[in-house]
Design brief:
Length: 527
Amino acid sequence: MASVTRETERKYEAPAAAEETDGPDAAASGALLDALARTEGVARVTGRGVEELDATYFDTDDGRLAAARTTLRRRTGGHDAGWHLKLPVPTDGDARDELHAPLADTLPADLARLLRSRTRDAPLGPVLRLRTTRRRHTLHGADGTLLAEAATDTVRAERLDGAPGGLAGATTAWREIEIERAEGAPASLLDRIEERLTAAGIHRSKDRSKFARALTDTGPPPETWPAPDPAPAPGTAGAEVLAHLARWHRALVALDTDVRRDLPDSVHQLRVATRRLRGAFKTYRKVLDRAVTDPVGEELKWLAGELAPARDNEVLTARLAHLLDTTDPALVLGPAPARLRLHSTPRAAEARDRVRAALDSPRHLALLTALARLATDPPLRPAAHRPAREVLPAALARDHRRLAARLDHALALPPGPGRDHALHQARKAAKRARYAAEAARPALGKPAKRHRKRVKAVQQLLGVHQDSVVAREALRQLAVEAHGAGESAFTWGLLYGTEQSRAEAAERGLPEVSEKVREEGPPGPGG
């Protein structure tokens, strides 16, 4: 399996003086080293010599990796020769996750699987060759701790393919500086270094990576993401809805990789992305043709269903473990924590296998292809070309009426399984109304924000109730398993009562918050 490191770095243009002098020594000297040495917290700058790096970068014929800000290369030379896959980190523009696999003639299978949502199984071929002469320096604190690495690179790039829009054989060259913060170094370090570099006349590069710069210099700049052609006019309902869909389409593609890497909360977030896309298809059916979006929505529903057991088991296990941890130890009778692990561990393993099988399936690949096709050729209806402030409020109003009707129906039922089911259906309607308000917020502003906040309050209460329903069923099963094994079932019964009280409290609060939603309603036309 590939090893993973989180690299946090910034790129800078080499000093003008370095551009006029041959050799990496000049690029790494003078103003740069002085600025690094003067940075607060840096006690020593140590030279690490020169490396000669030779890397071939890969992409699909239509640049799918470049569009997704993803870099794949095979590099020889230096201290980290091998295959490198670099993935953006959404929460930090300076950071990327680098996955490293040993040097081999062909792309390792585990890296290929991580790329599937981006390439959609399109063949990967060599796009660029970058040969780099690198002079490395390391920055250390007073106690010798490694703080950062500074690399001054002289880069020579050659285009290997003619697509998309590039000229095979085209070349370009430049010098640049990379500053990479070491793991555990202060988060403010890069800012402090940049202050010194800026004062020395060394400025941030406009290019996010060598790959992106070389592509731009040897052909048209790569697309940031597939865009509709032709695109609806700014300010129209179509423009707003497609921007929302593009955001969550990008998220789904990235989260597919995160789930394969078993990153924390990734299954939950991928499930959210599927729901937001599907909800938008349903809410904005006056903007997008349902004949096209309904089949895609059904496939999104399938994917969410395949993810559900993993996410539900994760949430349930954490909830029950917290209940045990916060219960008076004198009331925890028998091996309750061990019983919970015995109950949840095999379910978690089975759920993970189900998720992996779904992501590797032809059905999932077809879904990814359908979403990509929608991004470039959306099925816009006439309302898509009208102003967003006229069209979107009507969609919010429909979802609002749906939520109010489901709440009224649920609250009219007597307590019991029927009411529990009806409240769960109301929760789904609340989520859809909340997602719709979030999609409309860029166009409708504060009214949509207020509506989202009110609907979220209802959703949260309904969520507390539904989580209690699920937890009580699991607690009943745990009690049965404990009794069958000759263990005390007292603790599970005690926790069952705790969960039942929580559900009753949530139900008592529902009429008040639902009445507020009903009275205030969604934003009207014009915001």
